Amino acid sequence: MADRITLEVARFRPELDTEPVLQSYEVPLREHWAVLDGLSYIKDHLDGTLSFRWSCRMGICGSCGMTVNGDPQLTCATFLTDYAPGPIRIEPLRNFPVVRDLIVDIDDFMAKLPTVKPWLIRDVHSPIEEGEYLQTPDELDEYKQYSMCINCMLCYSACPVYALEPTFIGPAAIALAQRYNLDSRDEGASERAEVLASPEGIWSCTFVGECSAACPKGVDPAGAIQRYKLTAATKSIKDLLMPRSAR
């Protein structure tokens, strides 16, 4: 195996460039180096002007998501040897405005996330001295998968609906809403329904499934969306057939 590999990195410097351009760098090809290690090598040894996001290097923070050879990936969990002999093309996540080089603007997601109220909602809070709201293992299993989301935005980058309809709330936000809808301690499902069941919510999804394929944590946002479609459709039928009970 060769001891070096070429990274073709998208560069966008708004003060110089009108659109991203690829720039090639040779980095050491080491067995345990992730793509993020290759980018750090460039930053530290070859070109200190390269800009990208990272934090934990452990697949937890979600900040190092980028497009690697056309696919959205966490660069801390994607290894250089998987792409040998190269070259490896590294670009910013698709479907987001590029701020600089490999950094994208996620303000749209940050604005949409609170609209689905991804937090516990209760009509009445028991006094602290009465203790915790306990759950059974089965109740935890209902929502645990959807709680694994790390807000890495890979699902938005992979989603063809979000690419065409930027008003779409998006897979991660809906999956996070489901995490709370399915939590036995939560009483806020009706407050989330107006947003989730809107044209910009679940009904925009055409169930391509790319979001679930891209998710590094197995959250399955496509499954969360389809599950809520059933919930919303069932409620609509009940409201139609039993309008008094709906009120």
UniProtKB/TrEMBL annotation:
<dbReference type="GO" id="GO:0051539">
    <property type="term" value="F:4 iron, 4 sulfur cluster binding"/>
</dbReference>
<dbReference type="GO" id="GO:0022904">
    <property type="term" value="P:respiratory electron transport chain"/>
</dbReference>
<keyword id="KW-0479">Metal-binding</keyword>
<dbReference type="GO" id="GO:0009055">
    <property type="term" value="F:electron transfer activity"/>
</dbReference>
<dbReference type="InterPro" id="IPR009051">
    <property type="entry name" value="Helical_ferredxn"/>
</dbReference>
<dbReference type="GO" id="GO:0046872">
    <property type="term" value="F:metal ion binding"/>
</dbReference>
<dbReference type="InterPro" id="IPR006058">
    <property type="entry name" value="2Fe2S_fd_BS"/>
</dbReference>
<dbReference type="InterPro" id="IPR017896">
    <property type="entry name" value="4Fe4S_Fe-S-bd"/>
</dbReference>
<keyword id="KW-0004">4Fe-4S</keyword>
<keyword id="KW-0560">Oxidoreductase</keyword>
<dbReference type="GO" id="GO:0008177">
    <property type="term" value="F:succinate dehydrogenase (quinone) activity"/>
</dbReference>
<dbReference type="InterPro" id="IPR036010">
    <property type="entry name" value="2Fe-2S_ferredoxin-like_sf"/>
</dbReference>
<keyword id="KW-0001">2Fe-2S</keyword>
<feature type="domain" description="4Fe-4S ferredoxin-type">
    <location>
        <begin position="140"/>
        <end position="169"/>
    </location>
</feature>
<comment type="similarity">
    <text>Belongs to the succinate dehydrogenase/fumarate reductase iron-sulfur protein family.</text>
</comment>
<keyword id="KW-0411">Iron-sulfur</keyword>
<dbReference type="GO" id="GO:0006099">
    <property type="term" value="P:tricarboxylic acid cycle"/>
</dbReference>
<dbReference type="GO" id="GO:0051537">
    <property type="term" value="F:2 iron, 2 sulfur cluster binding"/>
</dbReference>
<dbReference type="Pfam" id="PF13085">
    <property type="entry name" value="Fer2_3"/>
</dbReference>
<dbReference type="GO" id="GO:0051538">
    <property type="term" value="F:3 iron, 4 sulfur cluster binding"/>
</dbReference>
<dbReference type="InterPro" id="IPR012675">
    <property type="entry name" value="Beta-grasp_dom_sf"/>
</dbReference>
<dbReference type="InterPro" id="IPR050573">
    <property type="entry name" value="SDH/FRD_Iron-Sulfur"/>
</dbReference>
<keyword id="KW-0408">Iron</keyword>
<dbReference type="Pfam" id="PF13183">
    <property type="entry name" value="Fer4_8"/>
</dbReference>
<comment type="pathway">
    <text>Carbohydrate metabolism; tricarboxylic acid cycle.</text>
</comment>
<keyword id="KW-0003">3Fe-4S</keyword>
<dbReference type="InterPro" id="IPR004489">
    <property type="entry name" value="Succ_DH/fum_Rdtase_Fe-S"/>
</dbReference>
<dbReference type="InterPro" id="IPR025192">
    <property type="entry name" value="Succ_DH/fum_Rdtase_N"/>
</dbReference>
<protein>
    <recommendedName>
        <fullName>Fumarate reductase iron-sulfur subunit</fullName>
        <ecNumber>1.3.5.1</ecNumber>
    </recommendedName>
</protein>
<dbReference type="InterPro" id="IPR017900">
    <property type="entry name" value="4Fe4S_Fe_S_CS"/>
</dbReference>
<feature type="domain" description="2Fe-2S ferredoxin-type">
    <location>
        <begin position="3"/>
        <end position="96"/>
    </location>
</feature>
<dbReference type="InterPro" id="IPR001041">
    <property type="entry name" value="2Fe-2S_ferredoxin-type"/>
</dbReference>
<keyword id="KW-0816">Tricarboxylic acid cycle</keyword>
